[in-house]
Amino acid sequence: MSTTAADLNDLPYADGDFFAFEQLLSDKERDRLAEIREFLAREVRPIAVDCWNRGEFPMDLIPKLAGIDLVSPVHRQGHSNLFAGLVHAEVTRADTSISTFMGVHDGLFTGSIEALASQEQKDAWLPDIYSMKKIGAFGLTEPLGGSDVAGGTRTTARREGGSWILNGEKRWIGNATFSDWVVVYARDLADDKVKGFLVDTALDGFSASKIENKIALRTVQNADIRLDNVVVPDFYKLANANSFRDVNKVLKVTRLGVAWQAVGQQLAAFDVARRYAVERHQFGRPLASFQLVQSQLVQILGNAVSSMGMMVRLSQLEDAGEAKDEQSALAKAFTTARMRESVAIGRSLLGGNGIVTDFEMAKIFADAEAIYSYEGTHEINTLVTGRAITGISAIV
Predict the structure, then answer these.
(1) pLDDT tens-digit readout, 84-109
(2) I need a labelling partner for 240 at 20 to 30 A (CA). Which of 283, 297, 311, 356 fits?
(3) What does pTM read for this prediction?
């Protein structure tokens, strides 16, 4: 069974926005969101399951994504953070892998340049990044460092004349098998501080190998990266990336993007479960006519709406320049927990059909596990929030 945005339009509350949060957007933003939804229904959702099954990225989609112009809606296009979040949720709703590709290129990679590069560096790099002529990746996580990478970055950088020499390994680097550039964070041997570098993937000593056998985000080309005496000219050292505190400026914002992904994932589960419940007949009547099935659908919708409500307010705080790290942490922890519950209910509602990707829900269910884990685990984000409300750190 395959559903599309067009298929859902004949059902009540077709957009799933039960509390009409989209009314908070400007007319221009609502029109733009509708345009993007139509694009996703036409170009992304129809190919999503096949790409996921094969574990291959649809490279011919990149020019189409460039044409719809999704990169940097806030800094470059002047849209609100609420609009940017709702767009990210809609891309996730169509396909989590493509939203992760965009989250890496637009959020983590482009966000690093926008937040931490000098104006001269931005002028040199951003035009090709915005137009997607150059695709980027974000190199922070390491084989032996995940939650503790802030204080334990093993990849090193050594200044030598007018260049930097990078050595080390990175893991789970999305887009890195085909990206043109990777922002690599490495520990400066001179002062033990984490610094950022724009690394051309064609440089000698740089290699990336695809991570195989994933059960989530199979379309995303995650890679293990090796840096073996990679020489990076000084101009490619990000001017304002001089400590892990600087890295956190990027992560605070991108953590919001992952929380919006959790919203989109729940809306995707709702779309598929509702359509299935209406169309599938058991005991001579639609599944949707049974009380327990309606209860399951309402629980998924309630989880999605509560998650969306939290994200709407947090986006407003971000627009006002008032959002805090601990608020992003709570949002990521809360929305992904509700997402995990929602997709499990959706998978159960489909019964046996919920474990095959033909009916979409199996892909939605599996992809949720990746969202639950990246950009800070549920446990770490919980402890960041706990530290904020008690003044006591329980992380170590």
Answers:
(1) 999 999 999 999 999 999 999 999 99
(2) 311
(3) 0.93
